[in-house]
Structures are given as structure tokens and as C-alpha cells.
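[SOLVED] Need 3D model of a three-part complex

Original post:
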Amino acid sequence: MTDANAAGEILTAQHVMEYPYRRSLGPVLSAFFTGLRDRTILGARTRDGRVLVPPAEYDPETGEATGDLVEVGPAGTVTSWAWVHEPRDVHPLDRPFAFALVRLDGADSALLHTVVVDDKAGMRTGMRVEPRWRDETEGRIQDIECFVPEAGVA
Amino acid sequence: MASQNSPKYNRQVAVIAYAQTPYVRSERRRNEVEMLMPVIAEAVEKSGLPRQEIGFTCSGSSDYIAGQAFSFVGAVDALGAWPPIRESHVEMDGAWALYEAWIKIQTGEVDSALCFCFGRSSMGDPAETMILQLDPYTLAPLGPDAISLAALQARALLDSGRYTSVDLAEVAARSRRNARSNPDAQLVGDLAGEDLLDEPYLVSPLHRYDCPPISDGAAAIVIAAAEVARRVCSRPIWIRGIDHRIEPHQPGARDLTRSPSTRLAAEKAGASDGRIDVAELHAPFTPQELILRDELRLAGDVRINPSGGALAANPLMVAGLARIGEATREIAAGRAQRALAHATSGPCLQQNLVCVLEAD
Amino acid sequence: MADESAIQSIVTPVRMEYTFTPGAASQRFLLGLAAGKLMGQRCPECRKVYVPPRGACPRCGVATRDEVEVADRGTVTTFCIVRVPSENIDLELPYTAAQILLDGADIPFFALIQECPWDQVRMGMRVEAVWRPEAEWGPTFENIRHFRPTGEPDVPFERFQQHL
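Solution:
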């Protein structure tokens, strides 16, 4: 595990830590991920009528249980974005892209996801985007490959 | 206003010693124990309390940074934990270890405590390590590293119209300039004013200078209740109030340009009960300092981060306690009478701790 | 509500890469191994010898700097019989894992016992290191293939009970 080295050098060892977690979901996230598999996006309605996306079991502001799950989007508005000039291996895209907060139509909170446009000049706060779904969806957040500018919107 | 000098928390507690390593890009010659031993020994010696008389020990660190499960138990080797000591650990910045120790003293169970923290962030990739603190269902699978999340916050702040990129650059330049008088700082010097904005972006709208360096280091602090502090310390530095508050986790559920948790923690810690001379703010990214300053409503003449702050050295799990330590140094040197120290945790300033310190 | 095909769980693998450096004490230990030696450190206060060393005496909380070479033979203080397979250990089951107090050391360390039937291993048994060929040595524990009995008489319990 340790590299051989000349005297006086500092020994180094490469170490990889991996955990193959499988996580149970509970009713709210189960519905959310099942919805993604079926190419719909669900939010949770709080007691005072706000819609949280991604849905939460409890309203983070009041601690009260959330109620019905409602379909939102699929299009929405970018509320903030960050342009990744050089993607990392951990990123879901291997070309420059934006991380963005997207407030989907009908939602009151924003979903963190990615937006793909040709270059940074194509990004702006307030732009309209819609999801591009993967060919095969399996019930995970990456079922949305990324968001792209809404068709028919300049 | 409800400060914590309420009957519920009626024990006056003081910082009686602080020590830290110089912060470096990569501590390759020493392991965690070897890094901690001189720092703990220095803090204990300065405190004037025999090690065996310190009633409680609490540490802050992260296994994901160490790359090792239960790494903190190994750090106990640096303590001389014999006969067996009362010990606790938080998987957080050392500032929260200090909070636990402060509460422990409030309970009356102990009269003094040693807190320490360590982070060799350089062994891994800290921006990616921080992904592991995110919601593992909807956030972490997308790989939003710490810099990208801070960039989302930066964009939101710029869009709000309250600040410009020039304001961000000025925070970076001032931090590095201040760091020149801090022998323990890592990034020191002059950032040339106008040219800064022409530098390439790391994650737009953040330039490299808007982001903290990768740093390794350790720190230790000793606190004591008034009766002990008075006995062993000629100039105790009083913790007048300490409080921490947290906001919802999802970045999209918050207004990233505000920090209501900081505002509330400052109120509860009694920050506005008197004039603040110095504020040490744990703002690893430039926009975060501006957001914090607004929430804390600091007067224009308050000196911000004379140490250089987390933009000059950002040892993870240490940089928050270091703000408290640096604030005590300002007071001990006579450069401040009353100081505010702040520590943060979680993505985009999700959780915030405020500690108000005052000279004897 | 019951949807047979609903997603009930998701897999969220985590992977992190690190470049470890051992620190001063462990580095000296590892370089000792590369030279076929087992190097411990002695506490200047309580005089205990730690192998492998971490740079501190956990009892006294002081730095340990005196280098002490200890023997590559010692005494089994305690042991267990392993009957579950592990990805990292390619041995016939069951096998014996033991705490071994090397002669000259004050804390036992963990090693495998071979060349001895698993049901013959005893507390107090004398064992010695079986090294790989010198040409294969590096700064790693793997230089020692395992420990095996020396055939010396067992050490009475009283002589190692402080080191359990």
C-alpha cells in the first residue's frame, strides 16, 4: 500500500474509501423518485399552501408534516446559477455546464440541478428551462439528465 | 433583548488560553497526533491549570477529512488521557466543541474544559469532501462541490444588486492584506486591485481569490468558569454570550443572500449589548463575508478579520474555532475591548454560531 | 396507495480518494520495516515502549522520540479464531489472529499466526515473525508474512497480564 522511496522522502499511500450505500426512502421520497422514473416531478404542499421541491416530509420552517404531493413544472425559472468551467469527475456532466437553482412552475422553493447551454453567455438568472430526461429512467435525481432552455423561448 | 446572561445560563465563563498551529497548504511531516500535541501542550500550559484538573475535553473533527472511521479516538493519544478523562467529540468545527464545553460548564458538572480541533484537509479534495454533508438523496448524487454551491450564493448576491464583483474582490484583497500581520496565516500579500476581475473564473462568478485555500492545521482553547479563571488567569477573556442557529438544508429553500440564523444567534449572544471593536467572521468565500456583515449590522469602523480570516487559511473543522481564538488574541493584545466571533457549518452558511467576547 | 412498482430505495455510492502521509513516528517505523527492523518509541516519562509508535504516549500525553528496536519475536497475549472470509485476506479458514507482545515492547500488536493448527494457539505461546524474502521488502507490514510458534516454553500468564 505504501510506495517505496528513497531515504528522506515522505512516504505516501493512495487510499480510496468507498461506501455502496443503499438508502430507504419513506413515503414522500418514494413518491418523488417513483415520479421521476415516470418523468414527472412532485412537490410537497405545506400546511400554509407553499409547495416544496424536492418534497420534504416536514415543513422546514414550521416542523409540521407536509400534506399532498402535487405535480409541478416540468418547466421552471432559474433563480441562481454557477458556471462550471472545468467539470470534476464527481459532476454529472463532462462538459462545461451550470449548476442552477430552478424554481419549477407551481413550486415555491427551487430545485438544485444542472443546466446545459452552449456556453456561459447562454445563462442568465430568470431564464426559462425544462428538464431533459434520460432515455432510461430508474427513479433517481439523475433521471433528469439536465435542464435545457425551454423550447420555443428565446 | 434575551441575551444568554439569563438565569438559565448564569455561570460566567472565560477563555483562559488559546493556541494554534501555523496553517499550511499541506502538513506532510506530521500525523494528527503529532500536529496536536504541541498545540494542546501550549494551550494547557498557558491556561495555568494542571492538565489533570481540567474537567472536560471536547474535540471537533471530521472522519471524511481524515479518511478514517472514528479518527477522533486516535487523537486522544495526544491528550495523556490517564487516569481516564471525561471526553466528547463533535463531527463539526471546533467552535461547536467549544459550545458543548460551555454548556457543560453551565450545567455545573465541570468548571473548566479543553477544546481542540484538527483537519488535514489536504489529504483529500476538500471541495468534494464537503459534498458528503449534503442531502444524499437529491443533492449529493449531482456532485455540487463546495465551490459550486458558494458560486450559486455569490450569483444570488450579485443579482440582488446589493454588491458587485468589485466588492467581492475587495474582501479578498483586504483579507490577504490583514493576513500579513498574522504569522499563522497561509495566503498573505497584495492582490492587485483592478486586475483582479480579469483573472479567470474558478466557478463563475467566483474567481480563485474569492475562494479559500486548502489548509491543514489544529487549534486548542481552554475555558473556565469565573472562580477558576480568576484564580489561574490574570486577564481572562469573558464569553459574554454564545449561540448557534440553523436553517433549512436545501439551498433552494432559502434566500441565499440572507442569513437569518446568524442574525438570531447574534441577538441571542447579546452582540448588540455593547460596542463591537473587532469581528472575526468565518466566511470561506468572499460573498459570505458581505452577507454576514449585513446580518450582524456591524458599524463601519468595526475591524473585520484582522487575522485574514478563512480566506487566508481554511483548515476545515478548525477555521471556526480559530475565529474565536483570533478574536481573543485581539483582546489579549489590547487592540479590542469587545469582539464578535462567528463560525459557520453546512453549505452556503446553513448553520451559524456567534460568540461575544470581552476583556476583563 | 400501495404501488407495487414504487421505488423504495436508491443506491447512492460514495467514493473518496486520499493521499495519506504517515507522520514522523509512523514513517520511521515503516522505514525500519523496509530494513527488516521493528522500531518502537519509548515514552520519556513512563518508559513504556510503543510498537508501532504514533509519536505520543497516550498515557502521559508527551512526545515519544527515543527510538528502540524491539525483537521480531514475542508472546501471544490473546487471540481469536476467524471463521468468516475477508476480501483482503487470502487464507484457509479458520485461521488465528493474535495480539502479540514483542520482546521489548509494552503494547501488543495485531498479527496472524500460521504454521500451527488453529486449535493449538494459546495465550502465552511464544512466536516469531516469518519475513518475506529480503528482495521483496518495502516500507510495509506486509514484509512479515505471519508469525509462527518458536517452540519455547509458554510464558506464564502473570508475566503478560498487564499487557492485555
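Edit: The first strand of chain C starts at residue 9 and ends at 20.
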